[in-house]
Design a protein that fits this description.
The chain is an alpha+beta fold. The protein is built from 3 helices and 9 strands. The mean pLDDT is 89.
Length: 134
Amino acid sequence: MALIENGLQILPEEECHVLLAGGTLGRVGVTMGALPAIFPVNYGMMDGAVVFYTGEGVKLRAALDGAVVAFEVDAVDTTTHSGWSVMIVGLAEDVTDPDELAAVGRLGLEPWAGGERSHAVRIRPQFISGRRVA
């Protein structure tokens, strides 16, 4: 783990994957026109990719368009001013293969928000980075 002078640690990719696998709530960043938009999602990991359910809207449109998106998960301790964050960047895709949909279903993801959220979206990491403040 590399240490930067100000106490910020750059996490190795392996640790980033462990932290991603241990999380349940993250944020997906997409563009709406030329503007960034960030949405919280509950997620799971499948074959190294982030997966989540969504309904009609911006996140599904990004998946149908194969858009480049960002995904971030973190944990903070406001008392000790410590924490970590992991970000991945990759292409969003709508999961349509029946076997893959069944695999996503076995993750037991339950969307927190109300409404119809039956589309599975996958983000395969093309880039991954993590930081820890200790």
